[in-house]
Write a structure and sequence with these properties.
The structure holds two protein chains of two kinds.
Chain A: H1 3-8, H2 10-15, E1 17-20, E2 27-28, E3 44-47, E4 51-60, E5 73-80, E6 85-90, E7 103-113, E8 122-130, H3 134-140
Antiparallel strand pairs in A: 1-2, 1-3, 4-5, 4-7, 5-6, 7-8
Chain B: E1 17-25, E2 29-32, H1 33-40, E3 51-54, H2 61-74, E4 84-90, H3 101-108, E5 116-120, H4 126-139, E6 145-153, E7 168-177, E8 183-195, E9 198-199, E10 208-209, H5 215-234, E11 243-246, H6 252-260, H7 265-268, H8 274-277, H9 284-293, E12 301-305, E13 310-320, H10 324-327, H11 334-339, E14 342-343, H12 346-352
Parallel strand pairs in B: 2-14, 4-5, 4-6, 11-12
Antiparallel strand pairs in B: 1-7, 1-8, 2-3, 6-7, 8-13, 9-10, 12-13
Helix pairs in contact in B: 2-3
The chains are: A mainly beta, B alpha/beta.
């Protein structure tokens, strides 16, 4: 039973809420209350933009328990624009080929069902899709 | 069953209200109607639309509502999510039978914890029902902002006529004070009767429908009655609106109802999205409205009439303000969502939508 863990992580998973260090301004994800850059306490919430680039990726054919329904799927290391690296599934790829350096954006998607496929609680989390709507990405810069 | 003697009355709050933010969402996958026809009728016969949108395997009404709501907030100026006092999601495809979609959406948008949250159900007009409630919530002065969403990942039995059109998509509307609005809501009027044209019983996977009964006594009767009563109480007619949008379960119905009410193609084609995305159920009328808001100019008036089986229609009159043209640039346009497109075949559709027997 992992319901309590999913519940604790919901803010970071649904909306990419991390932390910013009040001492050295480092952006932190996932949140850990201690700055990995300067070692001081860092508990200030920070909402990441969700924009980043693919640092590396692989395609999962033999999925771990709970993810078999989604296989094959692509997992990437995504370097967020604000600095931190996160591991996440890529989604909405269609026939698009994944490339290192490809710009991606965060979306909140269904990750899996906890336990029983039809009766378990639904786990939602961040995934990344190829950056769309370039008009908006330019405006935000 | 006699005709009523009740006089229609406009719903209009004492404090003027409007749409302060709006956002659409359409998944990127498309299933052409011809592909469904290939599987079930050997490619024979006409199809009610060109193609429908299909949600990806990791999408549902909650995730789609989150993206539409993010777009609505992006267009809403500098509204603090904590000031939004209601998150209401209208749908007939909530991911859970019991557990609100709205709390997931509220959590993802940072609207928790001091808010109302609830899921609405009225077949295809659950979203506009939530909009009317939001008008009252803001119009009474109890709240400055309320978020109303209509979103669906609709179900159609394989081989049934509805499978051609049952699609995925919708829109989110942040209702707020008229002085901040991108479009002022001049009023609404609803027309509701007990009409059994379409239903889905508890624990059933697919809906039932009354075949031809879904047309005249249901769709046409309710939309026409709501629109005519709206014209009567507001002293307006089709010539007063630059745009009109209706619930769109297929191409034929909204085209016929718009024409019979006196609207020209030029007035209704902007909001007529069903040929390219299908029937998005709770999202159908309001995603047509979002496509209109993407192009409307200040001063334009818009008529929207939804329809939900069971049955009822909500008519709304809107007037676009000078804030809209700049603000709408802040989120993807409805047509940009429609333009991104990955075609899938029936087999992929069957796997993603859980139509294969695995145990």
């Amino acid at each position: 039973m992992e319901i309590s863990r999913h519940w604790r992580l919901k803010k970071q998973r649904y909306a990419l809420i991390g932390e910013v260090c009040p001492h050295c301004e480092a952006k932190i994800f996932p949140p850990r209350d201690v700055c990995p850059e300067c070692g001081d306490e860092a508990k200030t919430e920070f909402a990441f933009s969700g924009r980043g680039k693919v640092y590396s990726y692989t395609t999962v054919q033999n999925a771990p328990q709970g993810y078999a329904d989604a296989a094959p799927y692509t997992v990437a290391l995504v370097q967020l624009d604000e600095g931190p690296m996160v591991t996440a599934q890529l989604t909405d790829l269609g026939s698009q080929k994944v490339e290192i350096g490809m710009p991606v954006e965060m979306v909140t998607r269904r990750l899996r069902s906890e336990g029983d496929q039809e009766r378990g609680m639904l786990v939602y989390s961040y995934k990344f899709r190829p950056a769309e709507f370039q008009r908006l990405a330019v405006a935000a810069d | 069953m006699s005709e009523t003697h009740a006089k229609p009355r406009l719903l209009t709050p004492s404090r003027p209200v409007g749409i302060v933010g709006y956002g659409a969402y359409v998944p990127r996958y498309r299933l052409p109607a011809q592909e469904i026809s290939r599987v079930w009728t050997g490619g024979m016969g006409g199809t009610p639309i060109q193609e429908k949108s299909v949600p990806g395997p990791d999408e549902d009404t909650a995730t789609m509502s989150i993206e539409a709501a993010r777009n609505a907030l992006a267009r809403a100026g500098d509204v603090d999510p904590a000031e939004i006092r209601a998150v209401w999601v209208g749908s007939e495809s909530h991911p859970y039978a019991v557990k609100p979609t709205s709390t997931i959406v509220a959590e993802a948008l940072g609207i928790v914890p001091y808010t109302q949250a609830g899921d609405w159900e009225f077949a295809c007009k659950a979203g506009t029902e939530a909009m009317v409630a939001a008008m009252g919530f803001v119009g009474s002065g109890m709240a400055d902002y309320a978020l109303a969403i209509g979103m669906d990942t609709a179900q159609g039995r394989p081989g049934d006529a509805l499978e051609y059109t049952a699609a995925a998509g919708g829109a989110a509307y942040l209702i707020g004070p008229a002085e901040e609005a991108l479009a002022v809501i001049e009023g609404s009027l609803s027309y509701v009767t007990d009409t059994p044209d379409f239903w889905r019983r508890a624990y059933q996977k697919y809906p039932e429908h009354g075949q031809r009964f879904t047309g005249e006594p249901a769709y046409f009767k309710h939309i026409t009655s709501a629109a005519r009563a709206f014209f009567e109480v507001t002293g307006t007619g089709p010539q007063d609106y630059r745009f009109a949008v209706f619930h769109q379960p297929n191409t034929k119905f909204p085209t016929r109802v718009a024409t019979s009410l006196g609207f020209s193609r030029e007035q209704f084609e902007t909001g007529l999205l069903v040929p390219r995305i299908g029937n998005t159920y709770s999202g159908a009328a309001i995603i047509g409205l979002s496509a209109i808001l993407d192009v409307a100019e200040p001063g334009d008036r818009i008529l929207m009439v939804s329809f939900g089986s069971g049955a009822g229609s909500d008519a709304f009159g809107l007037r676009v303000t000078e804030r809209l043209p700049a603000r709408r640039q802040r989120a993807p346009f409805t047509q940009e969502y429609i333009a991104r497109r990955t075609e899938i075949d029936y087999a992929t559709y069957a796997r993603w939508r859980g139509k294969l027997v695995l145990k």
